[in-house]
Specification:
Largest sheet: 7 strands, parallel
Number of strands: 14
CATH superfamily of one domain: NAD(P)-binding Rossmann-like Domain
Strand order of the largest sheet: 3-2-1-4-5-7-11
Distance between the termini: 29 Å
CATH class of one domain: Alpha Beta
Helix content: 25-40%
Length: 359
Amino acid sequence: MRVVIVGATGNAGTALLRRLRSEPDVEVIGIARRTPEDSGPYADMEWHPVDIGRDDAPDRLTQIFEGTDAVVNLAWQIQPSHDSRRLYRTNVLGSRAVFRAALRAGVATLVHASSVGVYAPGPKWAYVKETWPRTGVPESSYSRHKVLTERMLDEVESDHPTLRVVRLRPGLIFQREAGTEIGRYFAGPLVPARLLRYGWVPLLPANPGLRLQAVHADDVAEAYLRVLRADVHGAFNIAAGPVLDPMVLARTFHGVPLPVPGFALQGAASLSWWLRLQPVDRGWVKLALKAPLMSCDRAKNELGWAPSATAVEALHEVVDGLAERAGRPESPPLDTSESKPGRLGGLLRGRLPGSGNPY
């Protein structure tokens, strides 16, 4: 089986590479805007540097996809949050380029990385299935882009019934090697990440809406492999238990929950983002407060999938990675270079949080 991974150097991409490369009958081709260094563990793979947001991307991708059994689209930009045009260019227009190229090349299977962010606001004390409305949380650009890409997939699926289209909708994806990357994208250079090595956060914001699901990147990779090997269509929710709520976090980090109303959380995020103190706008807070909890019964029943790590174990890993500045130097998104946007060295060079392309 010949599989092309678009966006193969990020958090989910590196985990999927690890998983697929252990399968002797799978040939993997990687695509990224900036490919890994020649000396890395993936140097013997076939790589193609492609910026999927460029006008010539569909033609270049079509050539690469020809003769391929499956395409897995993981390409997505979360930063720079202050450049909405760049995010739309990669996330929406870039995804469209991938879908069009897959159709032109006659690929049999198209797998797309969607998210819990595609869902409309929903319950925090019950679990929704894959049929929950996909209208997103409008205040979040991330959510809006996920909705738009799934609508494009709906059209592709309707117009081309012989193409097998699958979407995975995971919760938060964590692994140790993504610690520095996640810190750059969501925390910024002013968070004293080194203090997290002690596993103690004295105060934790508590709100009834802050109930989130997470999953280890290796378990997401396993789900992708099972999708590639099974004759399935449609969407699959992917998450591990337990739900990460303020009480679970308080026990995990030996802290005290501090009740904070939702408007205060959003206001603090909005002001600090506007002042370029951190890279997360209020839309991310709104998404965290409104995104529903997902039932993963379909993945269990049709894929035989079950997480090997709990959400707490995955969280521990990424926090440890953040504290120890873990990453993969051969992978541009997971690079631990101090000069990147979101790091203190980048700030000293005038690269403010939420600005500049960190990929």
